[in-house]
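Appendix B.2, paired examples.
Example (i):
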Amino acid sequence: MEIRRLRYFVAVAEELSFTRAAERLHIAQPPLSIQIRALEQEVGARLFDRDQRHVFLTQAGKHLLGRARDILASVEAAKAEVRCAALGEVGSLHLGYASSAMFTSSLTWAIKQFQSGFPHVLLTLHEMTSLDQLNALHYRTLDAGILRKSDVPAPSGY
């Protein structure tokens, strides 16, 4: 079932007019009618009753309308989630830190700011030594680390 056909169906169902739905969708009315007929064939049921002046949803059409709206809303939500993921606004972040780092107000402030700015990112904190953080970063089990000392030599092979 094509998403485009579901969009067309919802437009006709909401407008109860092929002409107005075609205008709303910025397409010609004959291709819209063809797409609706194709959808009816695909689902195996008439979705609309038509007469010379009116369009009515059938019982099958009423049922599909609710499902089609849910499907289209899910598609839009998925697109928004993917855009957010591409921007780093969803997902998870594993942050390593040296135990003494939590004694500074700047780290706790930064964590709170991050969580309020990115509420859909799961932040997982890992207390680790500086050397363990470097190893975890190398093996990609950490995304970022806060070292206690900046002069810790990186393990060989980095």
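Example (ii):
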Amino acid sequence: MLRVTLGGDLAGFTSLGFDDHVKLFFPQGPAGADGEPPMASRDYTPRRYDPAANTLEIEFVLNDAGPASRWAKQVQPGQSLRIGGPRGSFIIPTNFDWHLLIGDDTALPAVARRLEELPAGARAVAVLEVADRTAQISFDTRADVHEIWRFRAEADAADGDALLNAVRELPLPSSGDGYVWAAGEAQSMRAVRLHLTGERGIDKSRIRAAAYWKRGAAAVHETLED
């Protein structure tokens, strides 16, 4: 991952929810007759906003394709980037008895932001899938966090979805009110949500699942519901 710190015209920027997203607009060629280049937009988590310093941090998962990765790989101080949003925030209270966070590489900025905001003593479990052990990150948190990592480089393809399997093996608390947040690849997140609601008895009102990307498609970001 690569963290880019943006400055400039950020007056009034507000992001209240850890899974907020902003649209980033990347130029895709020379300017047209109107003086503007064609743009491709992608959704990203506002990792951290510092109003005193007037800076906004965005973390990019670097891969071999896509306008966002291409831009992040070549960005230098002084380059500009247009952003829009967030349009609204979904607020998940921090006072649940336990919190379960599930996601792949694309969810790491939101997971890190959530763990930073949880109060001391909060119980949380993070089930995360990344490419390999070099992609594992550490979290700055006051919460009591149990981390479960899965690495695609070490997974056996015959075993199926490594992230879903990790969730299946996870013992859930037998008491207290909890909340589940999950984000990642669309098909994987649908399977995780179906397992938790259909086989583990978690009420649909206590789970928020989102597709941050979809295999074989571009620019996908959607909340997963029935």
